[in-house]
Recover the amino acids of this structure.
């Protein structure tokens, strides 16, 4: 007998994911419905690239206290849950340890409840005091934190799907184990920091951004469930960044949307669609459609601009190698310190 009740075609973790997506959609809809209340919030004039518009022209003490206080409490709560989950993972089943299954564990329910409480609090905080962390930090800190998260995923998934058209690149086992062991902490920081960075404004870019962030936050609450490692679900979370980047670029109106659409599209056809068990023919057809779309867009845009398509892939693949070197170097430093301590003893 499987873990699911007989006759029920949807595993428990999938049902929870669908229910949570429904909750996220309601939350995003609520941001949209309440959006007109923020129309009178005073902002400073847009000052161009690198400027974040959605912050008070005159910051307030309560705005800062509630934004940073909410973020810190939310972050610490998630770090504590991750730490507890790791403790449970090393125990035997008889001693109360956890194994992967289609059922949610108590700690998953706690994580979902904690995140639900804090995302509602952030909505209230915006409408009472408005400012997010953007008042005190640079907009690039938010963008780079999520970019590193996506690069980290590319690195961790390399043994399963390769990096370039299914071809695997050599990454030391110890580096991959380190990345998998600590990825939860970094991912939690990147998503929760970015979530509290923005006030819950109702622009289309904000709505898509919150929808995407909350899906990743949901994924972070699903540790030890099979949905957490479902390759179609995790691929969806990776690919949705294309939609978000495309929407934001179109709204900015600077004509940069092809760089994001085809940049992230390139990563999909080069890396992400491999490792799913798709036939060579299916992958070739997808690649052909991608190249056709690329040709049609740049025939009108001008082939002299096609270099912009390669910017995001080059940054991401260089990022994979740099992150690998960083982890390798850190592990070497730790090993040297460990040897030195043994010699001193």
């Amino acid at each position: 007998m499987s873990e699911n009740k007989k006759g029920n075609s949807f595993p428990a973790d999938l049902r929870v994911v669908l229910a949570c997506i429904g909750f996220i959609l309601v939350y995003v809809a609520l941001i949209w419905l309440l959006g007109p209340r923020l129309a009178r919030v005073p902002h400073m004039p847009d000052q161009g690239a690198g400027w974040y518009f959605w912050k008070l022209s005159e910051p307030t003490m309560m705005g800062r206290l509630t934004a940073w206080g909410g973020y810190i409490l939310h972050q610490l709560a998630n770090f504590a849950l991750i730490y507890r989950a790791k403790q449970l993972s090393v125990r035997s089943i008889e001693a109360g340890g956890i194994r992967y299954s289609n059922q949610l564990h108590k700690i998953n329910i706690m994580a979902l409840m904690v995140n639900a409480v804090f995302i509602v609090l952030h909505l209230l905080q915006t409408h009472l005091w408005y400012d997010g962390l953007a008042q005190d930090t640079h907009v690039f800190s938010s963008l780079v934190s999520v970019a590193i998260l996506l690069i980290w995923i590319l690195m961790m998934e390399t043994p399963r799907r390769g990096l370039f058209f299914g071809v695997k690149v050599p990454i030391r086992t110890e580096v991959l184990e380190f990345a998998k062991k600590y990825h939860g902490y970094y991912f939690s920081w990147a998503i929760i920091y970015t979530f509290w960075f923005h006030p819950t404004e109702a622009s289309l870019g904000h709505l898509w951004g919150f929808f995407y962030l909350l899906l990743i936050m949901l994924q972070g609450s699903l540790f030890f469930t099979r949905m957490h490692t479902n390759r179609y679900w995790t691929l969806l979370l990776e690919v949705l960044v294309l939609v978000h980047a495309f929407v934001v670029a179109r709204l900015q109106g600077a004509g940069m949307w092809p760089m994001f659409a085809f940049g992230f599209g390139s990563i999909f056809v080069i890396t992400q669609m491999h490792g799913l068990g798709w036939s060579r023919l299916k992958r070739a057809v997808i690649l052909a459609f991608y190249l056709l779309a690329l040709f049609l867009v740049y025939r009108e845009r001008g082939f002299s601009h096609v270099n912009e398509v390669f910017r995001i892939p080059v940054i991401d693949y260089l990022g994979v190698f740099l992150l690998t070197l960083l982890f390798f170097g850190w592990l070497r430093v730790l090993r040297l310190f460990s040897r030195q301590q043994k010699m001193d003893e």
